[in-house]
Structure formats: C-alpha cells, structure tokens
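#struct-pred
JK: can someone run the complex with MGD? inputs below
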Amino acid sequence: MKLKAIKNYPTNHGSSCAKGMSQTKTIYSNRLLIPQKRENISNNFSPTNYDEILEFIASKIKESDQKCVGFYLSGQMLNEDYYIANKLAKGFVGTPNCDTNSRTCMSSAVVGYKKSFGLDYVPVRIEDIEHCNLLIVIGANPAEAHVVLFNKIKKAQKRGMKVVVIDPRFTMSATVADIYIPLKVGSDIDLLNLLAIRLIKDNKIDNKFIANHTNNFESYKKSLLKLDEKQLLESCQVESGLFEEFYRLFVNSKNIITAWTMGINQSIQGVDKNLAINNLHILTGQINKKGSGPFSLTGQPNAMGGREVGGLSTTLAVHLDYSEENCQKVAKFWNSSNLPTQEGLTAFEMIESASRGELDVLIVCHVDPVYHLPNRNFVEKAFKNIPLVVEITAYRDSETSKFSHIQIPALPFGQKEGTQTNMDRTLTRVEAFEYGGDILQDWRIFAKLGEKLGYKEAFNFKTTQEVFEEYQEMTRLSEKQHLNIFEADYEIMRNRPFVWGENLYRDNRFFTHNQKANLFFVENKNLSEQTSKEYPFTLITGRIRDQWHSGSKTAQVKSLLKHKKLEFIEINREDAKELGLKNGKKVLVSSRRGTIEAEVVISDINRKTVFIPISHRGVNYLTDDKLDPISKEPDYNHGAVTIKKK
Ligand SMILES: Nc1nc2c(c(=O)[nH]1)N[C@H]1C(S)=C(S)[C@@H](COP(=O)(O)OP(=O)(O)OC[C@H]3O[C@@H](n4cnc5c(=O)[nH]c(N)nc54)[C@H](O)[C@@H]3O)O[C@H]1N2
Ligand SMILES: Nc1nc2c(c(=O)[nH]1)N[C@H]1C(S)=C(S)[C@@H](COP(=O)(O)OP(=O)(O)OC[C@H]3O[C@@H](n4cnc5c(=O)[nH]c(N)nc54)[C@H](O)[C@@H]3O)O[C@H]1N2
Ligand SMILES: [Mo]
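RT: done, structure tokens with the ligand placed:
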C-alpha cells in the first residue's frame, strides 16, 4: 500500500519522519495475532480466545481486593482506548492504581504547569515558532525526537529566529544552534537561576506583568538574590563569556519560547526544573503573547490525550483531581458507586507494591514497563511476584512478555481508528487504512472485560465514535469547562483538526486561586546519584532519530537500522583515549544496579559523561530508581556508571 501525504493538513503539512514513512512498507513478523496464556512464566504460551481469556481475567479481578488490581496504560493509546480503560479501572473495578508511562515522561511538566499557572495546559502552539525571536532548547533534542518540528525550527531560523541549545551532549540539534551551552548534567536550575538573578539585577524584567499578574515576587527575589552568581556558574561548568553571550541574546529578544523535554522532566528535581523555566517566563512576561511561552514538548503521540482523559493515577478523569465534589460528579456521570476516593499509586510505586506482594493483577496496555522502568533488576523481581500479569499488545516480543501470563492481541496503528491530541492541544483523527481481521482495538478489549465483570450497560458502545462522544460529554465536567473537547466533531476532524483551550489565559488571567501566576524559588540540591572513583561517569539516556523506544516496530525495518546502531555508548574522545577505547569496540557498562554491553561511539559529549540510547533494550539495568518527590518521574539521566573493555 502507498501512503499519500495531505499537503495542506494544518499540523504537519503532510511531512513525516522516516519511522512514519516506513510504516506501510513493512510486514512485521512479530505481530501478536491470537490471545495466549500460560500458568507459569517458565512455560510456553498456549492459544486461547478473547471470550475465554477475558472471562478468566474478570474472575481473577473479582477475587482480588480492588486496590490489588493495577492498570498500566500508555501515552500511545488513542483517546477512546484510554477513556474506556480509565473508566473501567477507576469507575468500575474501583482501583485508583491506574497509571501510565507518561509518568516517566511528562509528569514533571504537568505538575510544573499546575503549580505555576494552576492548570495542566500548554500555553504555546507550534505555529508560535513562526513568531518567535529566540528559541531556547533545553534538555531536548528535536532533531532526533521531534523531526517534523525541527524542520519548522530550521525554517524559522532562515527568517532570523535564534536558537540556543543547552545540553551536556553536542546533539544533532546543537549543530544548528546559534549558541550551544554544554552545561554539566543536572545543573540546569543553576543556569536558569543565574539568568533570573541577572534579569532582576539589571531590571530586565516585566515589572508591570509582575505587579498585576504574579504571586510571591518579593519572597522569590529575596531567596534568589542570596545565591552566589560565581558559584552558580561554576556549578553548571559554563564559561562566563558564553553565559554573557546567552544573556545578551535573551535580553535583546522580543519573543522567547523555551522548549524542553526529557533532559528536564526526567529528574529527581524534575518539577523544580520546570518551575525554574516557568519562573523566567513569568518574570519577563514572556507568555500569552504570540511567539512566546514555556513550551513543554510532549513525547508520545497521545501523552496529551492521556492527561486530558485522566489516565494518570493522580487524576480521576478529564482534568479532575481527586476531591469529594469531583468524585461525586464523576460517579454520577458514569452511574457508578465504585469510585476510589484518593489518588492511586504511580507507575514505579505500583511495581514497588508488587515487590512487597501487594499486587494480584496487573493489566499492561500498549506499554513495556519491564523495558522502560528504571532499575530493571528490581523491576524484574517485582514482576515475578505478581500472580497475574496481562499484556494487551500488538507485538509479541516485548521485554514484559518474559513476565506475562496472558497476552491479548490489539489492533495496531493503521488498523484502528480514533483520535489523539498532539503537543499543542490539537486533536486529530487517526484512520484505519488496513484491514485488521478479527483482532480487537484496545477499547473493545477493555469494554468486553467490563461486560464480563457485569457492567454491560456502562460499556455498551458500538463504534469508536460513540466512545468519543461520551468522552466529549464528560469534558463538560472540567473546571470552568475549560477542556472544551465537547465542541469538537468526530466527522469534521477527518479533515480539520480541533484545538481545545484557545487563549485560555486571556488577559493574563491564570487558573490559580487569585488568577495570578506563581513564582517559586527553587534550588539545585544535587540529589542525583553522584559519580565516584568506582563509577566515574554520569549516564545520560535518550532517543535516536530512526528508532522508537524498544523498537517493536522500528527495529524490524532494515532501512531504519542504517542511521545509528541500536546498542551504542557515546563517550568523549579524551575519556576514550584514557581508557584506550576505539570506535566500534565492545565494552561492559556497569552501575551499582546492573551491567550491559554496548559498542563505543566517540563524540564531543562532555567529559565524564556518556550516552546510551533507549533503543538498547537493556539500558534500564543501569538506571537509578530515584523519583521526583511530587511528580514521581524517574531520575533516568543522572546515574553513575563505569566502563570496562570486554
Ligand atoms: N526518534 C524518536 N523520537 C521520539 C521518541 C523515540 O523513541 N524516537 N520518543 C518520543 C518520546 S516518548 C519522548 S518523551 C520524546 C523525548 O524527546 P527528547 O527529550 O528531546 O529526547 P531525548 O533523546 O530523551 O533527549 C533528551 C536530551 O536531554 C539531554 N539531557 C540529559 N540530561 C540533561 C541535563 O541534565 N540537562 C540538559 N539541559 N539536558 C540533558 C540529553 O543529552 C538529550 O539530548 O521523544 C519523542 N520522540
Ligand atoms: N532509561 C530511560 N528509560 C526511559 C526513558 C528514557 O529516556 N530513558 N524514557 C521514558 C519515556 S519518556 C517513555 S514514553 C517510555 C516509553 O516506553 P514504552 O512505552 O514502554 O516503549 P514502547 O517500545 O513504545 O512500548 C510500547 C508497547 O506497545 C506495544 N504496541 C504497539 N502498538 C500497540 C497498539 O496499538 N496497542 C497495544 N495495546 N499495544 C501496542 C508495543 O509492542 C510495545 O511493546 O520509556 C521511558 N523509559
Ligand atoms: Mo516519553
């Protein structure tokens, strides 16, 4: 089959990355085509069917205390799949322990936005790049992770937009930067605080905006100005001349966007790092005007939709947090009396509870937690403790499959339909362009399970559109009806996407208690695992352009394997020389938690810093399971490792 681009489609103008282009040219030999089960994970799977297996799972759920049932969802599920899974888990099974891999991805940004502005709302649109004068890319590598957006960035540079890239690694994105700042891993708060101090001292802040639209300025300023500028600069290991160049560019730019992703969010101080970015935009009034604002770039295709539906365990549904009033509203809407009343366990906490033997059933959908959670040896042990692990997946060979008792096939992208929300609040239709046979779409699997549990009426949907329309109705429950997805039209979205929440912060009125933005003083507390004589390198992990995470699809495509190897370790040339390492050499990389093998790639990454891509399925044997105390997002990027020749 041949895919034809819709050139005038508003979000991507018909362009795609290589991963997308390869979609229809490949036959994936690892598709899961029939439900299968086994009693013990040391046995082989034997075939079963949807009815029998869902009946069995329902019986196990009924036998369990509801809190001992966990749902592990994904920012790659479509809105309709997500909505039904969340409705089943929180609304009818009655467990609050329903979280998603977005916990490992966007949760620090969610908390940051809520604390600063009162709402999980991205106040920037992609098209703002066209009106921006300075784009600060911090802890993100859009050249590999947001390829279509990166092309827009390059286009905007041609019209004069400047780009500053702040990253301990000289990335593909850094190659186009006007200023590249190779700060020390984990020291972003120091750099951002230094910038804030200078802006305040030189009175380059927006005093009117601060007076009218912000809280806490005086106390924030008092704490901030106690910090020592020289120490901050030393801490982030940035030369003062380079900082001054950045500072001059910042104060001379009319419209500024800061874009960030995992180099900021995935941290034991992920929330604080987000607040440090938001602070700068509040101080300078660089928000709510064309071409400016703090722009958290979303990772997965529908991580935003998952946040809206309410898939995170810290949310109940449709942007509603747990409160007595909200629980009542939702119980009434779903006509259910089973709702939990308090936030549930987050992703890694669920696994911790499993390690204590407190989880009976875990349903994993469109996600591979054994691969993607930190400290994998611990995670594997915990999985072995769960009596029933159910995997709903389109491909057979995930890392989690080594620990699952049941695998249920779902229709993959291309064979299913629904809607998803991109990074700037734009909902688009996803179409089926291939026939998927008897395999069910994710939402149908959850709905059938709902039926088997005795909730036929609540899950009696005939079409994906019906599911979307119930979800739409529910968005009317959102605070001030700000989540205006109820205004979208499923049919119209076939040709024209729908954007929710346009100009929500009209006249700089935010969603906090007094409609003012909150400044928070934050400080780099150096809480990550520190390097030592035994483990002298700091490990960064991240993406490569042509692979998607564990590569269940992309690692099957020959043409996508040409760009970069799947299992490499990037190391600075001086460090490589000291260790006697050459390009292509196999090494053993160890942390306090585990060891993996990788192939050396010599680069200009900062000294004593190494990078392993997450296309290496074993990467999380190394990573640390420290979590941000509020967002519970893992500190993936700052563990200490050592390297030995093989
Ligand atoms: N090709 C491809 N694209 C993808 C994905 C994929 O698997 N493949 N996944 C999608 C998903 S789910 C996500 S979340 C996004 C992620 O998108 P990105 O976050 O842009 O991708 P990463 O490669 O994780 O890049 C994080 C960057 O942060 C840097 N970094 C690490 N530690 C620090 C630090 O302490 N400070 C600073 N300033 N920088 C640091 C790293 O060197 C790296 O360049 O990508 C999405 N796009
Ligand atoms: N060290 C380290 N670890 C990380 C990260 C990092 O930067 N560093 N990043 C974190 C982040 S941001 C993310 S988002 C996660 C990503 O981690 P995961 O989401 O776990 O990775 P994927 O490989 O995308 O797994 C998706 C699974 O869904 C299955 N699947 C595909 N299509 C369908 C479908 O239509 N339906 C169903 N039911 N299943 C389907 C695939 O077979 C695959 O097993 O990793 C996290 N872990
Ligand atoms: Mo992600």
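RT: quick notes.
The longest strand covers residues 595-603.
The chain has three domains: 28-105+302-501, 107-300, 537-645.
JK: thanks, will look after standup
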